[in-house]
Amino acid sequence: MVLIILIFAAIFIYFDRFDDRGRRIVSQPREIVPRGDLADYENSTISIFNAAAPSVVYIFTENSQSGFFGRREIRQGAGSGFLWDGYGHVVTNFHVIQEAQSIQVRLDTGEAIRATYVGGSPDHDLAVIRLRNTPASVRPIPVGTSRDLAVGQAVFAIGNPFGLARTLTTGVISALNRRLPTAAGREVLGVIQTDAAINPGNSGGPLIDSAGRLIGVNTAIISESGSFAGIGFAVPVNVVNRVVPKLINNGKVPRPGIGITVLDEEVAAGLGMLGVVIDRVVPGSEAERVGLTGIDYRNRVSVVSLDILGGMFFRCFALLIRLC
């Protein structure tokens, strides 16, 4: 029975190689159709990528933690970044290197170099690391501005999504002036929303305009699955250009303040005082320079009386400080 089936199969395959007129069908490779010149927008995209890619780096991190039964576990992470200057400073997201004990940077050439932590600002989700050995061929990324951005203009994201280096995605600016909460509990203002695909591993990579300039740092997505869902966010370059020099020079970004601490509302009410009551003035602060002093607990009075309206002013001022 098996032999009969094999015979019929062979006959079917044999006759299937002939056309309806009994002519044998011989297959050859298909003729290649000339494509002609690339479209202008394609040439533009290729040029933008080729110019910006050498400035983009790929970051790999490791940190060890205690696992079950006291065993050490090595956790690995990946992200993106870009060269800021000729001294080997690399900008990325703070959450990319936050818990890293070892940082390795892979340049566009494929060269892997160890890096050290310089400074970070969790309030802005930005961090700076520095290459231990900086090649002479490093190409810092050109820096643009986020003041004249417009919804609908083209943007390009280069990064390391899912560990896939040299990945380019394109899109447009979907919205401007979004607010992005950070792990530090504060909000970054003026955030750029884009539909360019930003996936895990893209964090810290550059968002570029059609002139090849940095206009933002890709930092987050909105997705239930963790993968791209059409909504990505980037910290605007004007924030980056303000924060990064402070990180390089000081390792941190000091939080703005007027130099006072105030009593809890219940404590102040217990003292029979309304509004915001100054508890202490930081020496050398703006508050001290304008003559503010702390409360006199013995007499339960403050040299500078802040009434309810004044309290409202300081509450509004404190809110502005939290949003900076």
Report the helical percentage: 10-25%
Q: Give the low-pLDDT segments.
A: 301-309, 319-324
The CATH architecture category of the largest domain equals Beta Barrel
CATH homologous superfamily label of the largest domain: Trypsin-like serine proteases
Roughly how many Å apart are the termini? 83 Å
Major sheet characteristics: 6 strands, antiparallel, barrel
Question: What is the percentage of strand-forming residues?
Answer: 25-35%
**So what's the overall shape?**
elongated
Query: Mean pLDDT across all residues, rounded?
Result: 82
Taken together, the total number of domains comes to 3
The third-level CATH topology of the largest domain is Thrombin, subunit H
Number of helices: 7
Strands of the largest sheet, in order across it? Answer: 1-2-3-6-5-4
Q: H/E element string?
A: HHEEEHEEEEEEEEEHEHEHEEH
The first-level CATH class of the largest domain is given as Mainly Beta
